[in-house]
Amino acid sequence: GAGVSQTPSNKVTEKGKYVELRCDPISGHTALYWYRQSLGQGPEFLIYFQGTGAADDSGLPNDRFFAVRPEGSVSTLKIQRTERGDSAVYLCASSSSGGASGELFFGEGSRLTVL
Amino acid sequence: GDSVTQMEGPVTLSEEAFLTINCTYTATGYPSLFWYVQYPGEGLQLLLKATKADDKGSNKGFEATYRKETTSFHLEKGSVQVSDSAVYFCALESGGYNKLIFGAGTRLAVHP
Prior knowledge:
The complex is a heterodimer.
Chain A (H helix, E strand, L loop, with lengths): L4 E3 L2 E4 L5 E6 L6 E7 L6 E7 L2 E4 L8 E4 L6 E5 L8 E8 L9 E2 L3 E5 L1
Parallel strand pairs in A: 2-11
Antiparallel strand pairs in A: 1-3, 3-8, 4-5, 4-9, 5-6, 7-8, 9-10, 9-11
Chain B lengths: L2 E4 L4 E4 L4 E3 L1 E4 L6 E6 L6 E6 L5 E4 L2 E4 L9 E3 L8 E8 L6 E3 L3 E6 L1
Parallel strand pairs in B: 2-12
Antiparallel strand pairs in B: 1-4, 3-9, 5-6, 5-10, 7-8, 8-9, 10-11, 10-12
């Protein structure tokens, strides 16, 4: 399909393990965003890419979280030494520009469970 | 910092009932405001938006008016359908590059 694709859709891991979550945005979209949604809450901003660079990473909770977008398309969110509090749905979104149009196109998310 | 507060759910209605979901915000300046909807098994999608005071956003029979004086953006629909059952999120744009601040979401359940 032509939408934002996220893999895996579900990931169960043990505390302390390393996890990678992948996002494939809509083709041609230069802006890419990662959000985290905990149970019963709205999405919380993590990081914003314009092209290959992270223009705003102020939402990353600590240095265990890192994200890359090396070729300006696919992005990977990396979580080191996972903790139970990292359990959430991680959402990726893209848009055709970084302007404030507000139309983000979201993937269905990757549900992470840390045991 | 900027924030959004919306009414807690779940909201349970019968088909053809009138819907209001309240949303208020706190922000510096006058941000663009949005309603996103998440249908079961699907990703979040934009429902409607308003970019300045007194603007009315509308889509699929839903409406919301940007009220600067009350810092509100309440979502309304005159006659809901079972297919409107979903989680609705109010959001504001912060930073000028689609950095959205979301409310906690309101689940709507519509029964036949």
